[in-house]
Structures are given as structure tokens and as C-alpha cells.
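In the current project phase, we have settled on a layout for protein records. One protein thus recorded is set out beneath this paragraph:
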Amino acid sequence: MSWVRARLGQAAGERGSALVEFVFIAIVVFVPLVYIVAGFSAVQRGVFASTAAAREDGRAMGTAPDPATGAARAAVAARLAVEDQSVDATDVRLAYAPAGAGCDAAGSYAPTLTPGEEFSVCVTVTVRIPLLPEFIDANTATGQFLVERDRYVDG
């Protein structure tokens, strides 16, 4: 067996070096790769949470009999939709905008829930990237849902 090693050029001092090289490559390549995948997963989870929360908030608000009941239902629906994606519900902002306006104009509008009213629901979720400090919260995902109240409602 030693003649095979000598023939292949492997000296006795190089035994076990493949394991060291593999561990070095694993640390240099795989650890950052896993971190990147975890970061993208956190961002995607935030996008899903904001979109689902906007949709559920809009459905709850759009089917409510009055604005006060609608706001209470919408807050619960949005919280449940965000928690379903394992996002902290304290990092969620709900706002409403008139139809045709984007989420940039959201915040000053309050739906009246009159028959035929159209408005947008904007939900912004702060996305936390793993292993980054808490004060770095510039990563946000915003979901928007257009609500169209039925023109023919009882009441």
C-alpha cells in the first residue's frame, strides 16, 4: 500500500489534510450561504406577511357595518395574518389611502364605509434580518389591497 502512496506523490506528512481543507471550505462557503438564505427567507416572510395582512385587513374593514367595528376587526385580522408568517406583530403599521392613491399617501385617510366607497389598505411590516442589531430596521415590506364596498348593502 505504501508503494501506491509513493507513486501518487502523497507523502506521509500529508495524511488528513483533505479533512482540514474540507472544513475550511465549508466554513468559508457554506456559512455565508446559509446566512444569505436565512436573510432572504426573512425578507420573503415579511413580504408574505404584509400582503396577507393587507388582504385580511381589507376584507374585515370592507364587510364591517360601521368604521369602529371595522377598525377593531381589521386590527385583529392583520395581527393574525402577520403572526401566521412568524413575524412580530409589534412591527406592523396599518394605514388607509383613498382609491387611486398609493401607500405613500396613506395615513390621513379614514374609511367611512359608505356604499360604493373604494379605498386602499396599506400594511407595512418591518423585516428583521437574523443576527443584525435591532436599530437596523430600514428593511420594510408594504402590502396593498384595494377594497371596494358593495353599492347595494342593507342598512
DSSP finds three helices and three strands in the chain.
